[in-house]
Amino acid sequence: MEIEPSEQYLDLQDELMATGKLFKDPDFPAIGRSIGGPIGRDPEIRWLRPPEITINPQFIIKGMTRQDIYQGRIRDCFLLAGTACLATTSPELLYRVVPPDQNFNVDYTETETKGAKNEFWVSLLEKAYAKLNGSYMNIDTGFVNEALVDLTGGLSEIVRVEEYSSKPKVLFKMMSKITEKASFMGCAVNINSGSIDEEVGNGLYSGHAYSVTKLTTINYKDKTVRLIRLRNPWGRREWSGDWGDKSHKWRKVSENVRLMLEYDNKNDGEFWMDFEDWIENFKGLYICHLTPESYFGLLAQNIITSHWTSQIFHGKWILNQSAGGCGNPPHRKLFWTNPQYLVSVQPLGSKDNNISLVISLTQKDRTDETNDYINFLTFQVKPGVSLNRQKNFTQSELALIKRRKDFVNVRDLTAQLRLHPGHYVIVPCTFRPNRPGRFMLRVFSEVSVPPQTVPKVSYSLAV
């Protein structure tokens, strides 16, 4: 896939080619603060360009695959696991994230093998992501779904695996449907991103992210066995139980089955597990849905159209102005100062007049340590209340119809709604009042109607 470079990139390239200078990024200079943390102050650290590291450096060798990815000193397994998901499930999308038509020399010949020390696309993607987040230390731990949202613009969801411990068939079917829709999944032994990598006795590591690269079923001793394939971004250290690379069970299936499952007994970080063993060992499943249909596919089977439209709002919680918190006493009145978004739902023209919406709230400029507890509440505008606003709606003008049970300490929060035709108000908020911050609110709907913006403090979207 060929990606058209931007005019700014081409102008910069022409300037550097004409002058013979090497590019120095003014926004991410080769100094300690770009590394961040105590390690950034280490005087022994040197910044090197690829030709100073190896002979014949190359950006990509024979395409980008998950086997190219090996984690180094930074604990950014969440990013690398997410990148491996793209390389496995949607190489075309990875080419949009990492345009392949570039290299260190105008004329070059590919040499070396996959994953060689002179292949740099993973390292440079990691550097670009560190720049996006302010420093390398700012990407030291995180969540797979958040990295995937950043890479793809998809919708984030976290599933607590233990909730399906008594119904593994349901979870397996759900995850299989996700892979059919080319969405992405990662998982972790424990659900907190900040835990230190620690071996738990069976080849798995806590505080570590794995890519989900495949699910399948096979017949084994006249029984159907559900299997899941994972990849460790370290490129080594694998599950040592049933269906792991060294499991005796591989000797009891046919060569055709081994070929179909791409079984390879080597320490490359990729391995199979029995799905019920996976449920027993993993706590968090991190999903990035590329489309609202994928997200709704887990929760509803009556979606009648795949023609979705989206609207994006960028807002702020401003100290003493619009950071109203959750409305708990003694700050009930402050809640109504939060930003408000008016959604007008029109009939779809079918027997089922309910309209499907997916709403996603993202905190900006946050890290895992500074995320606020967030939520969004949905209200219906009461009959007779004017929609022509110059100020926020008040409590007496709205009726609460939907709120998530809990405020959660995450960067991305996504939920689905089925709404009757009418007028609704979405209120994103933090749990505590006067917590300033920036956010992005995305609203996906089944029908496309031009949005209407209400001045000043309320915003409108017709769907």
TrEMBL record:
SUPFAM superfamilies: Calpain large subunit, middle domain (domain III), Cysteine proteinases. One of its GO terms (biological process) is proteolysis. InterPro entries: C2_III, Calpain_cysteine_protease, Calpain_domain_III, Calpain_III, Calpain_III_sf, Papain-like_cys_pep_sf, Peptidase_C2_calpain_cat. Residues 22-291 form the Calpain catalytic domain. Gene3D superfamilies: 2.60.120.380, Cysteine proteinases (3.90.70.10). It comes from the Eukaryota. The keyword Cell membrane does not apply. GO terms for molecular function: calcium-dependent cysteine-type endopeptidase activity. Pfam families: Calpain_III (PF01067), Peptidase_C2 (PF00648). The active site is at 77, 208, 232. Keywords: Hydrolase, Protease, Thiol protease. GO terms for cellular component: cytoplasm. PANTHER family: CALPAIN, CALPAIN-12. Belongs to the peptidase C2 family. This is Calpain catalytic domain-containing protein.
